[in-house]
Task: inverse folding
């Protein structure tokens, strides 16, 4: 049900003139980021007289992202310096001076696909019965007995966005799957269509894999983008949101992740990541979009140094260039199926065993010899010959080049301004436990500073342009984002002023930030832009109302910067 007051906007500061260089909210972002690996966690004030984590080479991240509010169950990541040999070290957290409260302790261990060494303390600080204000947490490393402190600000729960405060876990059952989502999100809005898509993809994946779905698959729809939009272990997590800045087709991501679940249920002694991902890409018919795998992989050969030798890729799959690795894996499986047939490929794939040396490449080599009488090197030579025979349409090569640029830029953004989303170390918690404890903020809340909104809407536009093969527009937007991120990394003041298009996006986001959407006669939410299209001196903005539906606004560039033109039309 839609109510009229959702559509009203308060023009509190909306007509304030902004020149392209007047960007007061930007400076803290620019100065807080010393390097790509840094953690620009805004909650840490770090201005204590005591030495902070950085002075010992450690860094601390608090979750949820995007500000801490009374009611949160706060988690901490204590990240060890790259040089640390901290496996035998633990950290203990205490809250406050005098009458201290133990928050917990944890040993350092590898985290994420990257295996970053860190101590992870999940939901250790329960703030439900605390007053808003500033709190100090003491971190002590054992056995060195080194202590530092960090300060965190708890904001009043009344300042939370109204729909976020009301959101709760809900579930739905489809033919194949049990689907969990958060109320008040885009997933709830589009649930009937999503359930249909999920069933369709599960049926196709089951048929393509030749495996029945005998027990339901659990799928969680996330309201924020994590990694590239999909993860699978025994359960599946898929991002579903309006401000999605990647080109991943939802049906393809679901199909890909369902293949992983069915594949894992079939087992196998050693399944190399190159073939696990290659099989999912091959059976899905592409990585993010439907793609002609062999011609697209052949396009890699026209860019010197892009083709990754198979031995190297097998050994370092997830740390190799992501899109190239997946494309080569998918094309390699396509080639092997073309050469020997799917049943023979599957027999080989399920019959790979660890090599005494521990080398995945040698394990692959051994299984190839016993099934096909061919070494890994010989397979690569034949695969390359096949790629050289392909005819590569020019738009396939250009699409590939810009797809890689888009995802490289998106990962660069995540590492700098949304590190919890970076795919090698994502903040992906135990979702089953999260539901049991009725925790929602770890997935609902995310960094939404003007810099985040400006870059995400630029990347989203670049994705939309790339999907339409509008290459010049996509490249222009990606260049703008890259220029800003590089300026941030170098500590340049006003990084958005380094590119005219980026400055437009930042100014528009700043104008929007000063406006609010009425969500009831008594309360309002900050306006959340989902899509921004800049066309010369005009901009069209789609923003979230309370429900969440999208409303449209138009802004125009005046002599003193961007200002509202109108904002009454409702629709998608
Ligand atoms: Zn995958």
Result:
């Amino acid at each position: 049900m839609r109510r009229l007051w959702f559509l009203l906007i308060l023009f509190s500061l909306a007509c304030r003139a902004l020149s392209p260089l007047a960007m007061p909210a930007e400076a803290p972002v620019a100065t807080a980021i010393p390097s790509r690996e840094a953690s620009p966690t805004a909650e840490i004030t770090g201005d204590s007289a005591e030495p902070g984590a950085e002075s010992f080479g450690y860094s601390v991240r608090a979750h949820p992202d995007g500000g801490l509010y009374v009611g949160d169950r706060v988690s901490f990541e204590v990240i060890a310096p790259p040089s640390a040999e901290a496996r035998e070290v633990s950290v203990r957290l205490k809250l406050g001076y005098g009458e201290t409260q133990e928050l917990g302790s944890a040993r350092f261990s590898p985290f994420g696909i990257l295996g970053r060494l860190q101590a992870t303390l999940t939901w250790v600080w329960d703030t439900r019965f605390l007053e808003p204000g500033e709190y100090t947490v003491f971190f002590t490393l054992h056995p060195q007995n080194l202590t530092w402190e960090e300060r965190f600000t708890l904001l009043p729960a009344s300042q939370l966005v109204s729909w976020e405060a009301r959101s709760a876990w809900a579930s739905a059952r489809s033919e194949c799957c049990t689907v969990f989502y958060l109320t008040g999100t885009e997933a709830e809005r589009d649930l009937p269509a999503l359930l249909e898509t999920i069933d369709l993809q599960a049926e196709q994946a089951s048929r393509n894999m030749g495996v029945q779905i005998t027990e339901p698959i659990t799928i969680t729809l996330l309201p924020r983008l994590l990694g590239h939009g999909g993860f699978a272990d025994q359960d599946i997590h898929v991002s579903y949101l309006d401000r999605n800045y990647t080109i991943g087709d939802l049906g393809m991501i679901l199909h890909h992740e369902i293949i992983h679940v069915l594949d894992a249920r079939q087992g196998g002694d050693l399944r190399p990541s190159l073939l696990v991902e290659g099989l999912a890409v091959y059976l899905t018919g592409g990585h993010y979009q439907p793609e002609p795998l062999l011609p697209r992989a052949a396009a890699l050969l026209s860019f010197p140094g892009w083709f990754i030798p198979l031995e190297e890729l097998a050994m370092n799959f997830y740390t190799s260039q992501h899109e190239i690795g997946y494309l080569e894996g998918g094309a390699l499986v396509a080639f092997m199926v073309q050469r020997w047939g799917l049943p023979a490929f599957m027999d080989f794939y399920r019959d790979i065993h660890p090599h005494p040396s521990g080398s995945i490449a040698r394990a692959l080599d051994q299984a190839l010899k016993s099934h096909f009488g061919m070494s890994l090197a010989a397979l690569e030579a034949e695969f390359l010959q096949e790629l050289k025979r392909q005819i590569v349409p020019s738009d396939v090569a250009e699409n590939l080049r810009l797809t890689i640029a888009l995802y490289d830029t998106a990962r660069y953004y995540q590492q700098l301004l949304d590190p919890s989303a970076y795919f090698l170390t994502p903040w992906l918690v135990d979702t089953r436990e999260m539901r049991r404890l009725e925790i929602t903020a770890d997935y609902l809340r995310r960094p939404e500073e003007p810099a985040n909104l400006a870059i995400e809407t630029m990347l989203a536009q670049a994705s939309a342009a790339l999907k339409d093969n509008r290459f010049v527009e996509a490249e222009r937007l990606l260049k703008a984002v890259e220029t800003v991120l590089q300026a941030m990394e170098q500590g340049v003041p006003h990084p958005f002023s380094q590119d005219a298009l980026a400055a437009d996006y930042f100014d528009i986001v700043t104008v929007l930030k000063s406006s609010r959407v009425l969500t009831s006669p008594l309360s309002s939410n900050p306006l959340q832009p989902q899509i921004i299209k800049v066309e010369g001196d005009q901009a069209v903005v789609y923003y979230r109302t309370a429900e969440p539906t999208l409303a449209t606004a138009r802004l125009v560039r005046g002599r003193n910067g961007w200002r509202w033109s109108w904002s009454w039309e409702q629709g998608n």
In short: The radius of gyration is 25 Å. The pocket of zinc ion is lined by residues 256, 260, 277, 280 (CB under 6 Å).
